[in-house]
Amino acid sequence: MDNPSESQLEQLLAQVLANPKYSSILPDLIKGIGSHELQKRGSFKEAVKETKTKLHQATGVYVDREINYDDWLTLLRNIPPDDPAEIKNACKQIMLQHISTRERIPGLDEFYQIIFNMVPAFSSILDIACGMNPLTIPWMGLSSQHFYRGWEVNIQMVKFLAEAVRKFDTPCSIEAVDIFSVNEIPQADLVFLFKTLPCLEQVQKGITPILFNRIQAKNMIITFPASSLSGKNKGMVHHYTEMMQRWLANSPWQAQSLLLLNELVYILEPRYDYTHYRPRTIGAPNPRDAKISEPRIMRGHDSRCRFI
Ligand SMILES: C[S@@+](CC[C@H](N)C(=O)[O-])C[C@H]1O[C@@H](n2cnc3c(N)ncnc32)[C@H](O)[C@@H]1O
């Protein structure tokens, strides 16, 4: 098909939004995928079908649409603010509903301790495609001087999270943003891209190097699942390690990596001389300069954490 007309795109958007499974997805993302599919597919019907498939892979697969966000808000609101243990319990219960975020629950007590020990002091976080991860804020050890911003494409989830984070002492902003269509990525000391690059790549192959060039931060923390949603280890660590090596080699970032419970974690820092948030004016770096850390075994009590 030629470039789709605005009315074709609006028709596709209406058909996709009519399905309750996708009614909470930001129209920007639906239109972005839909426009591509309308150009690529032979018929309108096929384009709608493929748009839904992509949306399922990128967003739908992670949450059950029967979620009752109001019940969760009531659960949180009924906990006294001076009962942090009960707030954590409630957050864990809620996170169980997000297939991706819930995999982090068993290791939460150590997850941020280990990661934050590996980066310099920071005051702001941008969590891109955050899912339910804002509910892990109570484990981050942040203060009222920190700032956490979460971006997610599921509008209902964003509305819920924006209310839920009021329970925490840290100033937060949870926003409905489609990372593919956002004009500006705000600067932050730390940017999280947790388990998200594979699903963004499914929608738009090659988005990662674009993001690597656009993001300005002192550090990025990128994670990948070490096993599939069904729990099988299908050589995913090896696969994502190779992908990251390729992406890093042509990027302004260098990284070290570790296996932390179920996640392959990369800690990235800018590769070149870097003063806070100075716009990078470097050209394409030499891939041979890319620093990939040598295998290291972490010393200490935690045998579940392994540097690779
Ligand atoms: C694999 S989950 C990861 C969630 C979270 N980062 C974590 O690790 O707990 C991917 C999340 O990205 C969101 N997402 C998918 N496409 C997106 C987009 N274009 N912009 C923003 N968020 C998106 C999905 O709705 C989903 O919650």
- The end-to-end distance, rounded to whole angstroms, is 46 Å
In terms of structural class, how would the helical and strand content be classed?
alpha/beta
- CATH architecture heading of the largest domain: 3-Layer(aba) Sandwich
Kindly report the oligomeric state of this protein: single chain
Low-pLDDT segments? 275-305
For the record, the CATH class of the largest domain is Alpha Beta
What count of helical segments does DSSP give? 10
Our estimate of the beta-strand percent is: 15-25%
Strand order across the largest sheet = 3-2-1-4-5-7-6-8
Q: Could you give the order of the helices and strands?
A: HHHHHHEEHEEHHEHEEE
Radius of gyration: 20 Å
What's the CATH topology name of the largest domain? Rossmann fold
